[in-house]
Amino acid sequence: MAEFHSVTLDFDKCRGCINCVKRCPTEAIRVKNGKAFIISERCIDCGECIRICPHHAKKAVYDKMSVIEGYEYRVALPAPSLYPQFNNLDSIDYVLDGLLRIGFDDVFEVAGAAELVSEMTRSMMKRSDCPKPLISNACPAIVKLIQVRFPKLLPHLHTLQPPVEVAARLARERAVKKSGLPADKIGVFFISPCPAKVTALRHPAGGERVVDGVLSISEVYMALLPEMKKIERPQAEQISGISGISWSYTGGEATALLLPHYLAADGIENSIKILDEIENDKLGGIDFVELDACFSGCVGGCLCIENPYIARTKVRYLRKYQPVTMSHLADYPGKEEKDFLFEDEVEYDPVLELASDPVKAMEIMLQIEEIEKKLPGIDCASCGSPTCACFAQDVATGKAELNDCVFLMKKELEGKLSGKEQNDGKATV
């Protein structure tokens, strides 16, 4: 079965420009015959191509609201980044109540689960066997990036399930008790800010699937807005405080750990630089690293409505007069840290390897070096590959032809024309 990706290409809208080719962090996009195509195994669903495409040819696939109708009891898992999409929101309870009005029977805040993860992480980091720096796994695009580009850092990845998975498990258990229905009659749906989370929840890197559908913030927002305007006094009650709500933007997760030595960075390019520093042992004295593929964190996800910087300001407003935290592991009797660990290890994905056989890989590497010497080295991407080095690799592996390079083609044509002129001159004499 083909690997699922939330990021897809609308072939009809594609104009064959190279904007997406140049911005893809894993060099997963090429342009051939005037159209882009995505190399599926390299894609990490970061959504960078969706943001950059001027023709809206890249789009995210997610479940439609109608998917909830297939279940007798429906539970919504709103991401904390949903809240700052609304203007003049002074209480999260309006959003939670609105979700009950548009077809859900229960709501479990992912922000509440985030507070549980923060609590368990603080405990883990006090132990001597905890790797330093510990790298957050909350952003699935970063996890996938580490899998394909930075396998040496896999032991540094957090082993606790991210908040959405913790929320899904707790929400289903609570729904079974409240409804009396079997688990298969209960639908649990995450409201996502980005395509990476859609992909990760459909095909988790370290365990079984725990949600029945992933909806987009943008679509849920449109359904919520008119219903929220009708609410005079909300009935739902939030279970998250400052630390949980703050997970919606970069730095929120790290600050919730109450550590003096942490690093938080946003944007896929900045994240790659940080991972390079960690891999090369140039980043000492840091205990925890939080990286987000999207600028400003989850509020910058391409399935959101609001400008990420405005959304971050709204989060700061929502934090006012809130308790520091409202959810604690003690609120869930019988639950321990071990219950929320990944069932399987996150493994290296060798999609960027030239060949599985080291000897063959070395031969290809030598071919690449020889081909690269012939190229102009200006990384114009006119050939459809992002860089000259990448194009050389494509040629060496049989995925491109050397004359796809317009500079080499021009040079060849000039040589032929020059030769023809000389021959014509000789014929005239």
Could you characterize what this model shows?
With 429 residues, this protein is an alpha/beta fold. It folds into three domains: 1-60, Alpha-Beta Plaits; 65-126 and 159-249 and 300-340, Rossmann fold; 355-429, Electron transport complex subunit B, putative Fe-S cluster (3-methyladenine DNA Glycosylase II, Chain A, domain 3), CATH 1.10.15. Helix content is 38%, strand content 10%. Helix 3 packs across helix 8 (217-228) and helix 4 packs across helix 6. It starts with 6 loop residues before the first strand and ends with a helix.
Output mean pLDDT. 92
The chain-level structural class is alpha/beta
Shape by Cα distribution: globular
| Residues in helix, % | 25-40%
Q: How does CATH name the architecture of the largest domain?
A: 3-Layer(aba) Sandwich
Order of helices and strands: EHEEHEEHEHEHHEHEHHHEHEHHHH
Topology overview:
Blueprint: E1 7-9, H1 19-23, E2 29-32, E3 35-38, H2 48-52, E4 58-60, E5 73-78, H3 93-101, E6 106-107, H4 110-124, E7 134-135, H5 140-149, H6 163-179, E8 186-192, H7 195-202, E9 213-216, H8 217-228, H9 242-245, H10 252-255, E10 262-266, H11 268-279, E11 288-292, H12 308-318, H13 358-374, H14 388-396, H15 406-428
Parallel strand pairs: 5-6, 5-8, 7-11, 8-9, 10-11
Antiparallel strand pairs: 1-4, 2-3
Helix pairs in contact: 3-8, 4-6, 13-14
